[in-house]
Amino acid sequence: MLVAARSEQGHALINLTGSGWAPFHDSDGRPVKQGASMLAAATGNAVDQKAHGYFRYRWQLSEEERENVKFRAALCHAMSEIEGREGRLTEGRLNTPQVRREIEETAGTIFGQKIGRAEMRGGRAKLAWPLPKGRTLLKYLRIFKDEGAHSVSLQDRHRLKGNRSGRVTHDVRLLMTEASKVWLTERKPSMAVAHAELRDLIESKNRLRRSRGLKDLQVPSLATLRAHIMKNVPSIARHIARNGEKDAHNKRGPGSTDVRAQMLGELVEIDECKLSIIVGIKEAGQWEELDEVQRARLVELEDGIRKQRIYLVLMLDVATRMPLAWVLTDQPRADATMAAFGMATRSKEREQQKYGCLREAAPAVGLAMVRNDNGPGLRNSVTKTAMAGIGTTSVDMRTHRSADKPFVERMFGTLETELISRLTGYTGNAPGALPAYDAVANGKLPVGVLYEIITRYLTDIYPHEPHFGFGMFGRTPYEVMQQTLREQGMIPPPSPHDRRVHLGKMARATPNDEGIRAFGLPYQSTEFQKLRDLYRGKWAVYLDPDDLRAATVLIEGYKEPIEAQLTATFFADLDFYEAKAIIEECRRQNPRNANPSEHHLMEAWRAIKATNRAFEGQFGSWEDIARKFERMTQGIHLPQSTGPLAVAMPGSLADDDPAGAFTIGEGAPEPLEAAPAASPNETSPTTPTARRLGRPETKGKMT
User: Fold this and answer.
1) CB 267 within 8 A of CB 318
2) Using CA atoms, how far apart are residues 240 and 26, in angstroms rounded to an integer?
3) Contact status, residue 328 vs residue 310, Cβ threshold 8 Å
4) Interval 183-224: pLDDT, tens
5) Residue 640 DSSP code
6) Cβ distance 366 to 490 under 8 Å?
7) Neighbours of 692 (CB within 10 A)
8) pTM of the entire predicted model
9) pLDDT the model gives residue 363
10) Among 544, 540, 543, which Cα is nearest to 553's?
């Protein structure tokens, strides 16, 4: 059966199995109540046979409607009690004062509030629930009995009033569905385009109907077409059709509620994000040293430089939601990722003291598994090799799939909402989001100050705010970290040697008596002097960028790594980049002072040479040197050159008497006649029996 309409008298049904689709009415509702027929709605969903058009449960109703149902149920219970004691109630009896007074008292006791006429006390009316007339009371009692004393059946049915039949024909709805395909495309056209397509479809349909003598179909309004699409196409399906499956998965995906990690460092997520802020380039200590020409040139380039915004490389622990590392860079390459790995595996005490943080950050921790995406600074041979060296499992997530790394992706949104949007130079989270704000003109925040602000936020604020992510239950990340360290523990950080070798900087240098020098920093060890003579050549020196006090030295052919100590103590409190900047600053010479310094040096050397020349003898000339050379080279014995040796010509080895060939045996025979002596300027022809390869005449001569 197909439900065509509902009313208090019953259901209007259409027989789906018959040939004529003959409608009929079940006036008493008996087939429905007894389960003798199966009802199906127009959408194909099964209809509850006992619902009769009302909600079945109390909490499906509004708060006001729940109070009305409770009040009417109290009236029905009171009338049932009176009817059981005095007999059947009629409309006339329900309107008598005695019965109404008894209903007010009994129902008021059940309902817990006053029922009846409002009373005037002190010039004010005291509100009360009015008692309906007898006809309404009798209707409530009949419904209450028919539904088995189910109080929810006493709800209002105002939503069923009016003409509930559709005013758009079935043919037009099919055309509306066809026209909606124009709107559900990735080009994201407006609804007006789909409405124009609907007009064309209906006009084509009407031409066919006119030829058959049928009435034209009316074109629905744009609002009707929009309502048709919104009703029949779910919001997620609309998002997929207009924005693509990847974007829909990121923004409307169901997500996951798994507890993915229980130990600190067991699973971490790392990602890079371009911050929605523009920073300045006039850092303290550099702008003042430039001349007017350099300042003018820098101002011209400043707008272009500012447009290259800053990236944040962030690492977040999944079990506790604690930030483990954060690095700012203008190019998210392997160096920035390596710096993040180094920060996660060391203590953050340096940042806490440098920027005056009030609370403690996450401790040094090992990384058991790292989830990263297809970013240029994350998927490369340098970072993959480093993670393998410190015993970390690297898992590559899918590109443009935020659900694969939901925790760090959500962290970027929180960081922008709570912090970045408050800073000067904020660009907004979308193009054109801040039309009245000039981010370039207000981008005066230096990079160092921005890093200080982010460090204070990730150390003092974010870890100590309530977190309502799954598994956190309102606890702060710092509390979860402390509980995790007490109950579950943590992944131990890598050894100092492993950190330097796999996450540090490497230089090759040759040791000397004072030790070994790498990147301009001197290191010494007691084992150097023992191994220096045994293993010559250049050694590999590895430095920890965050701790320069020690270095790891690896020698080719030597089994154990050597730990060397920094001998320049004034670099002990600096990191690698600070020490490098100091060395470069010391080596850098101011261009304005370069020419005077060179001139003074040349004048000083010229004066020293003139003073020394007054007490020095005359230098020899080139002629004197040439005569001394001729005198020294006389008497040197130079051996005379001999003629070329005789060789066999190609292809003559098989002849009876090949020229230049020897007979195999005891040796070549002596010649019958002595060969004439050759003049010094002539070369005697070599006969086949001539002696070759003789011992040179060296008797009495120095060899």
Assistant:
1) yes
2) 44
3) yes
4) 999 999 999 999 999 999 999 999 999 998 889 999 999 999
5) P
6) yes
7) 12
8) 0.66
9) 94
10) 540
